[in-house]
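Reading is simple: each integer encodes one residue's backbone shape. The lines below illustrate:
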Amino acid sequence: MAENSLFAILLRSRWWVSALVALGFVVVAFAMLPESLRVIGALGGAPFVVISVMAARRQWGLPGPAKVQALLTAAGTMGWNEFAEALATAWRREGYAVRRVDGPGADLALERQGRTTLVSAKRWKAARVGAEALRDLLQAIDKQEAHYGIAVALGEPTDAARAFARDNGLTLLGGEALARLLRDMPLPPKA
């Protein structure tokens, strides 16, 4: 499916957006079509009902926008050891064996089904993520013969970093995706 097709956009949107589109088909069909064609016209919204159900399944149990912001803010206030432990706990919940890595370029190693993923996360507070950190991660992957690499950051990656990650099969983990991973992390009490 094309990344910017209507259905792809609706799958990334909240589930109720597709439900509203489907409801719009029903309302327009019953308001504008002759009585003999109303049901057939209303069925034009069926694909949007399916998209709504698919989006709801994907979004079930995921943090909403307010919690995403709270999780990212909390992650930004943590020290390195606390943040590393939050990441390790989250990946263990996902079924990975997690161990700390000492050395340049990588901070954590995730293992599952005989595959190793190295994670670079110490620069998670950087405002902009550059390609240099990704080069260090790529070198660590080669040195340790790992299969994948993930760079964790709260800041936005530069265009050069995005291109480097894409060209070298690295994953940039930040924003909403990072909040989804940390969704069970305890948040500090509100003041």
